[in-house]
């Protein structure tokens, strides 16, 4: 168990815990010596495969890899010194140690201070500096890392969450906040918060116990949004109409995958007030709850999800428009 990385998939960690109760030896056996190979471990003969496999990827080439980081780390004077001290040992008088090794620049010694409190957690691997499980990014690549993390225009909190799992450098939180403030699409679509009385829904302890639904319109299209109150999972359907029949059809499609919810929360719109919709809920054992009239914030989970989807669409469309202008210029 001690050799398992912290970020290993939960399924593998559970297997490791279960196998730790046994004493066993691992024996390698060649494939041609396996008398009974299961079907899933062997691909069929190529001559029998007729179907084509389609896939897509945002990046057909990796935007950044360990070799790039190692190359830029060699050019970064501060990280070079930090790696040298990590290999040979840090002292309580970092400036004196640096001076003895010929590093007489006061600016360089000052830049090493953020690394000194973390000296016991620093390590070097493949010419890269690590703080725990997080790689220390050289100065020249920090803006590229911020650009990758903000590629989908996520917020400050989500960017910090991603960074805490993968990368680190001094004052990274301030750099993330500054980068999002300089993002033009994010700032143009920023919402001003309006103070309202806070009356929360009861917390759910399992998925699909309470589901919030709502319609929203964007660029002449109507969508139905479905949000699970526990997992915050989003399911969005493009609607041909907002009548009860079409709405029930989309709900059936979602519920066929994830199961029936116990509660369904919606506003007082016409599709949710008809006998057909009430019959649908009753026949499936679903408790239907209305939000108070003229108070859309009471169905806040769905309203928040609508705002998130609209904002993301606007940012992507604006970014595509900017790229188009640059190509035409």
Automatic annotation (TrEMBL):
Alphabetically, the GO molecular function entries are: nucleic acid binding; RNA-directed DNA polymerase activity
What SUPFAM superfamilies does UniProt report for this protein, alphabetically? Ribonuclease H-like
Recorded hits in InterPro entries, A to Z, give:
Integrase_cat-core, Integrase_H2C2, Retrovirus_Pol_polyprotein, RNaseH-like_sf, RNaseH_sf
What's the name of the protein?
RNA-directed DNA polymerase
List residues of the Integrase catalytic domain.
196-329
Recorded source organism is: Popillia japonica
Please give a single GO biological process term from the UniProt record: DNA integration
Q: What is its EC number?
A: 2.7.7.49
Q: Which domain of life is it from?
A: Eukaryota
One Pfam entry name: Integrase_H2C2
